[in-house]
Amino acid sequence: MSEINTQQTLELWAMYTIKEWLKKIRELNIGKTGHLASSFEATVVTSAGGNIEKVLFAFEYYGQMIDWGVGKGVPVELRDALNASGLSKRKKKEWFKQFYHEVAVLKYVYAERYEAGINSMITGSFS
After folding, report:
1. 3-class SS string, 16-79
2. Residue boundaries of the structural domains of the chain
3. What is the pLDDT of residues 79-110, one digit of tens each?
4. pTM for the full model?
């Protein structure tokens, strides 16, 4: 059975996720200054023995405000009411939801890899 290099897989997945976020913010015309795009970082955190604990993503907090359609003069609690009344022109630019798609991709990658390994292990035991 081939071993899965979990850390390498997660590092590649994190880099791909950031690439997809960058693509999304370009599509939505977010971040004319480039500060948000240059702020994306990812770290795979391991515990003793090299076990993966988590993947941490970091980016400028205002990126979340853009995703939510809030900011100066438009608090998140009043966003919908202000937009409905015409008092705010801010719109959601949902770039972050791409993350949930990438998590689904990661689940699929692991399912495929583990299935192949288990199938070869089972087949090998009957040879």
Report:
1. HHHHHHHHHHHHCCCCCCCHHHHHCEEEEEECHHHCEEEEEEECCCHHHHHHHCCECCECHHHH
2. 6-60+97-125
3. 778 777 877 777 889 999 999 999 999 888 88
4. 0.77
